[in-house]
Every structure is written in C-alpha cells, then in structure tokens.
Amino acid sequence: MLNAYWNIGKGIIEFEQNGDQKATYGKRLLENLSKDLNLKYGKGFSRSNLSYMRLFYIKYPICETVSHKLGWSHYYELLKIEDDLAREFYQNQAVIENWTVRELKRQKKTGLFHRLALSQNKEAVLELSIKGHLVKSEKGLMKDPYIFEFLGIPENKQYSENDVETAIINNLQKFLLELGKGFAFIGQQQRITLNNKHYYVDLVFYHTKLKCYVLIDLKIGGGEYEHIGQMKLYLGYYEKEISDDKDNKPIGIILSEEKDDIMVEYSMLNDKSKLIVSKYQLYLPEIDELKMKVKEIINN
Fold first, then answer.
1. Is 250 exposed, middle or buried (0-12, 13-18, 19+ CB in 10 A)?
2. pLDDT at 199 (0 to 100)
3. pTM of the prediction?
4. Which of 66, 90, 119 is the last residue of a domain?
5. Domain that residue 57 falls in
6. Residue range 21-63, pLDDT digits in tens
7. Residues 205, 184 contacting (CB under 8 angstroms)
C-alpha cells in the first residue's frame, strides 16, 4: 500500500505537473483523479488522500527512505508536520518504540521532539532527528517538562501529591508511554526503613535497557534542596540493599511543578549521584513557544 501511494504521489508530480513540485495543480485535478481512481480501484482515493499522497512523494522522494514498519495512517500523521527535523524524529521514534497511531498523535500533541531538544545543543538536536531518542544513560531520561495531561485533573482543582500519584497508577500505561521505552513498574510507596524510621519512595521502576532501578518522587510546587537530599538517601539505600551485582547504580527522578535551576546546579555540583530534577505539567504545553525555543538553538 505504501509503495502504491508513493507511486501515485510520484505520478501526480512527474506526470500531471511535469515534475514541477510547485506547479499550480488546483483542486480540480485531484477531484478528477479521485473519481478515476475510485471508479477503477474502489474507495480510498479521496481528494484529501490524494493531496497527502502527493505530499508523501515530495517529503520522501526516495522510496527506500520510507519505513515499512509504519502504516499509511502513521505517515498521514507525519505528513502533517511541517518541520522536516521534527517529522524525521517522530518517524524514527515511532519505529524504535513501535508506537500505534494514537501514541504518535499524543507525542506530537505534547511536543516530545521539542521538549527533548530543549536540553540539547545544535549538533545534538540534529542527531536527535536523525537517530531518534535512544536512552543510553540517565541523561536520556530527561524531559523538561514531562506532560501528564492524560491524568485529567481539572485546572481549578486543588490536588495533593497523593492525588497525582493515584491518578498515575490509574493511568499507568499512558504514564509509561510518557516515561519512554524500557520501564517496568515495580510498585508505589515502596518503604525504606533506617534506624526504625520509615521512608517511602513514591514510584519505583526497573529500566530494562539501563539495567537499574529508577526511583521517582512527585512534589507539588517547587523542588527543594531537602528533596534532593532525600532522594540521595533513597539512591544510597537501593544501591546497597536492593540492587544486585548485575544492576547498575539506581537513578532518581524528582518531578516537581516548578524548578529552580540554580538551586539544582549548586546542590548537584561535583555530585556523582544519578539524579534528575525535572518539571511536570498537568496540561498541554504551548507548542508554538517550544518550537520557537528550538529554532533559537538551531539558528545559534
């Protein structure tokens, strides 16, 4: 089907437009082609579909660059992305993580490419688009912000950390999609006991690619210095008492609504702990604003 649609797009450009991609073709041309193709081959050749087949050939002029691990519905969504770098990223990531069309739509909507790109330099952004997002270390887990719009918490509602945690457990599959590939859920409110005093880690996962435990703490408001110290305690305990010889050092992620970058920088200065402090949002980000910030990185 992909080959057929690609060749139809090629035919529209090379035959109907004499190879001129920018030639004025008008809706009448596609309407006539739609009638002819539907009459000969059946449904599936609407004017809208034909316009995307045309665009399919323009954006993928070499047929071999089309991944047959994705279906036409995936490419239909990818072709809606104007930015070539972003489109290439989402295509590669959809293949790497085996996204459904619904998952692809969500990651586009939440601006995954732009959120990942904000923590990169120009060269890294270009590499991100070409290779996709491959998690090789704790830095690969960093997104700023994480987006939890799937929790469905109303904007005017007063909520607690427990409310957010409970909503995450109730939407665990979607939360795992936001975290990324390789996470296996271990449990919530995992108890740590030291000197007869109990501490509780909000969420514990095991990362199958990094071969380590990942501890997540959720915070309402801003992340504070004491939260970093507490997470270091958790990481030390898991490294000494829970991890075995085959495991790598555990990773800690503190997710807060606000983040003081300078405080985090000084708190982690010369620290070898595998600890990430990131923001989370319960609502969709301003995609246009993210795009502008990424353009600034690329143009510098």
1. buried
2. 95
3. 0.86
4. 66
5. 2-66
6. 565 555 678 888 889 888 988 888 888 899 999 999 999 999 9
7. yes
